[in-house]
């Protein structure tokens, strides 16, 4: 129902924009240096070869390794420890207004000459929240009772998620502001798309690796088969 409603809203608003919005024919857009897809890729390669861009790409591709496990695995581990999926989904609701307000607040601090300062300042706090998330997973079975989990546990989870959102958006908005600032206006679309793509990759590949490593790094013990770690799927089956 949720997806159907917003899908309908999306279709209606987009259709209204298509029919009711008129293009301003008087303004002539500035011509970009690229003319076709081949030129665009040639331009991308020339941008990537610039020493400053190459260094920035390497930094941004590795900057999120430290909190990839906390971001990708915490929710799954909480479910594994007995926290109902629907309760975790409900906890995301209070985050929505926060996610709307945060970019507006943070943009004031990233509008200056050094937007990445906000990125650097938020990083240690986000790393510390990774330890906080590990504590939440460890704490879950300790406070669990027959009726589920106490209200104070959910309160701590919501607070932790809220603090995490603040650090996450501080880093995200700072990177977006920096990309917009350093992109050459003449090829702004191509330049910004490249930097934003690298930024997205920097967040996605560590999460994928973290999820892939969960099984090999999990210490398991088979009930009734002492000494067997059940490290592989075959051993677990046996």
TrEMBL record:
InterPro entries: AcetylCoA_trans_1-like (IPR024371), AmpG_permease/AT-1 (IPR004752), MFS_trans_sf (IPR036259). It is found in: Membrane. One of its GO terms (biological process) is acetyl-CoA transmembrane transport. Keywords: Membrane, Transmembrane, Transmembrane helix. It comes from the Eukaryota. It is a multi-pass membrane protein. It holds the Pfam family Acatn. The chain crosses the membrane at residues 6-22, 43-67, 87-111, 123-140, 152-175. GO terms for molecular function: acetyl-CoA transmembrane transporter activity. One of its GO terms (cellular component) is membrane. Coiled coil: none annotated. PANTHER family: ACETYL-COENZYME A TRANSPORTER 1 (PTHR12778:SF9), SOLUTE CARRIER FAMILY 33 ACETYL-COA TRANSPORTER -RELATED (PTHR12778). This is ACATN protein. It comes from Pomatostomus ruficeps (Chestnut-crowned babbler). The lineage of its organism: Eukaryota, Metazoa, Chordata, Craniata, Vertebrata.
């Amino acid at each position: 129902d949720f997806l159907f409603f917003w899908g309908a809203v999306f279709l209606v608003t987009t259709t209204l924009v298509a029919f009711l919005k008129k293009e301003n024919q008087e303004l002539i857009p500035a011509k970009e240096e690229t003319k076709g897809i081949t030129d665009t890729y040639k331009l991308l390669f020339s941008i990537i070869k610039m020493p400053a861009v190459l260094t920035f790409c390497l930094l941004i591709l590795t900057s999120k390794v430290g909190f990839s496990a906390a971001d990708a695995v915490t929710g799954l581990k909480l479910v594994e420890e007995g926290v109902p999926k629907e309760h975790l989904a409900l906890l995301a609701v209070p985050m929505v207004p926060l996610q709307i307000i945060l970019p507006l607040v943070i943009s004031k601090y990233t509008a200056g000459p050094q937007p990445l300062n906000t990125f650097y300042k938020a990083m240690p706090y986000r790393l510390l929240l990774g330890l906080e998330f590990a504590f939440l997973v460890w704490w879950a079975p300790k406070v669990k009772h027959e009726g589920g989990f106490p209200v104070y546990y959910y309160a701590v989870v919501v607070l932790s998620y809220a603090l995490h959102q603040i650090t996450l958006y501080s880093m995200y908005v700072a990177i977006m502001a920096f990309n917009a600032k350093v992109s050459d206006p003449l090829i702004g679309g191509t330049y910004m798309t490249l930097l934003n793509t690298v930024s997205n990759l920097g967040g996605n590949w560590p999460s994928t690796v973290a999820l892939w490593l969960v099984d090999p790094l999990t210490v398991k013990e088979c009930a009734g088969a002492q000494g067997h770690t059940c490290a592989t799927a075959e051993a677990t089956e046996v």
